[in-house]
Amino acid sequence: MNIVEFKSVEKRFGDNVVLDRVNLEIAQGQVVVLIGPSGSGKSTLLRCINALDQIDGGELIVGGLSVRGGNAVTREIRQEAGMVFQQFNLFPQMTALENVAFGPRQVRGASRAEAHALARELLAKVGLAERGDHYPNQLSGGQQQRVAIARALAVKPKLMLFDEPTSALDPELRQEVLRVMQALAEEGMTMVVVTHEMQFARKVGTRLIFMEHGHITVDGPPAELLDHPPNQRLRDFLQHVE
Amino acid sequence: MDFDWSVIVGALPALLQGARLTVLITIAGLIGGTLLGVLFGLMRAYGKGVVSSIGFAYVGLVRGTPIVVQVMFIYFALPGLLGVRVDPMTAAIVSIVVNSGAYIAEIVRGAFLSVPKGLSEAGLAMGLPRWRVLSFVVGPVAFRRMTPALGNQFIVSLKDTSLFIVIGVGELTRQGQEIMAANFRAIEIWTAVAVIYLMLIGLLTMALRTVERRMRIL
User: Alpha helix locations (H) across B64-129?
Assistant: First the structure.
């Protein structure tokens, strides 16, 4: 079953065409790794899935709902598609626990006790059971990103979107975030990940997509594509990344 | 030149009476002004088309005219225009509400827009409606950022109440003026009036500092 369907989707910023009639189907359980040079449209593609960016043409169906279905439908889609940002974007006035408990309380109508129990469980899952009372500015970047993953999971999404989740992190902090993401993939979570981490793509990804100028130009199994890039531009790109 | 303390002692009850009115007008005016400021500030920050234009017109009108003219207009001109009589006290409070509201609107707008966009995106991405994102995610961060500027405006508004001397509200400055007109002891009376203002603002400053110390600006 497809959880995401792009049908000839267009997205423009002014005169700049960022997504040019993109067609893409993502099935439940897939771990899709999106790569491509900067400006190729990979982050925009991700942000269109949960309607943080509005599409200008075509049709985009997420979990059976159209992203153009209006405010109520948009909110429903966003509850099904959790998002993790490059800059973490934790709420600075809340502790780690409150950050994670916020979604269940505000969106799912959970009681304070329920939300906090769930938040503690999720913080433990990302290895931060002891850090619940810390504010974001008291946590390292890697810890903040793991809290952000727990916060997204707390809303109980069917799909997780990661927008360069390790790009703002020092190399030694990336692994702890990637390990959490790998565990999530192994549980069967559907994931779309914009990243430059080729090891992660090879090890965890079930599908690799290469984007250029708003088009999907390569789409296939990660190991195969990384070992034998089918075109010169992907080969060049991989050399720059690795 | 002799400084006669007994003049101050004699004038004190009337001056404190005036100070009471000053405080009353300030509190009522700033409560209303803050509510109005938040409303118009958000209209300016997030409204589109007409909504934003209304906010822009209000702020422009208030910032573009002196507060004395606003007071005169509300007390003398508005009754003629609308056919309602307002007592001086109401006119005074309304003036502070309308005047501080415009400045607070700009403070609110600036503070909300200064909060990184990523925070509201994180809230929206969870499926929250925009008003909840503004109330629970952006609002608390913005509020911390606006306290210094808000404190400044509170102090300015407290001092602006002295202008109500022109419509005969018996606030602190007016009381001083009346006593002075009767006994001609300018030095004692204006010293006493100034010291009372200093103490009121000192108190307000301390309160604001406590608020700021209790929360980190994020």
Answer: 67-72, 78-82, 88-114, 117-125
In whole angstroms, what is the distance from residue A47 CA to residue A161 CA? 8
Nearest residue on chain A to B120, alpha-carbon basis: A89
- CB-based contact A191:A31 (threshold 8 Å): yes
Give contacts of A155 with chain B, Cβ < 8 Å: 126-127
Contact flag B126-A78 (C-beta cutoff 8 Å): yes
Query: Min CA distance, B110 vs chain A (Å)?
Result: 19
User: What are the residues whose beta carbons fall under 8 Å from the beta carbon of B113, sequence distance 6 or more?
Assistant: B45
Q: Which residue has the tokens 């209000």?
A: B58
Amino acid identity at A47: R
Q: Give, for all 242 residues of chain A, the pLDDT tens digit.
A: 799 999 999 999 999 999 999 999 999 999 999 999 998 999 999 999 999 999 999 999 999 999 999 999 999 999 999 999 999 999 999 999 999 999 999 998 899 999 999 999 999 999 999 999 999 999 999 999 999 999 999 999 999 999 999 999 999 899 999 999 999 999 999 999 999 999 999 999 999 999 999 999 999 999 999 999 999 999 999 998 86
Tell which residue, A183, A192, A182, has the closest CA to residue A157.
A192
Q: What is the ipTM of this complex?
A: 0.93
Cβ-based neighbour number of residue A41 at 10 Å: 24
- From residue A34, give the alpha-carbon distance in Å to each of A19, A161, A196, A205, B201: 14, 11, 9, 10, 59
Residue A140's nearest CA partner among A128, A157, A123 is: A128
pTM: 0.88
Query: pLDDT digit string (tens) for B48-66?
Result: 999 999 999 999 999 999 9
What are the backbone dihedrals phi and psi of residue A136, each rounded to the nearest 5 degrees, phi first? Answer: -50, -40
Q: Which residues of A touch B116 (CB under 8 A)?
A: 87, 89
Contact between A44 and A19 under an 8 Å Cβ cutoff? The reply is yes
- DSSP track, B14-45: HHHHHHHHHHHHHHHHHHHHHHHHHHHHHHHH
Which one-letter amino acid corresponds to residue B162? S
Go through A154-188 and write b for each residue having 16 or more CB atoms within 10 A of its CB, e for each that does not: bbebebbbbbbbbeebeeebbbbbbebbeebbeee
Q: Cβ neighbours of residue B115 under 8 Å, at least 6 residues apart?
A: B138, B141, B142, B145
Q: How many CB atoms lie within 10 A of CB A23?
A: 12
Pick from B116, B127, B218: which is nearest to A76 by CB? B127
Longest CA–CA span in chain A (Å) reads 55
Q: Nearest CA to CA, how far is A52 from chain B (Å)?
A: 7
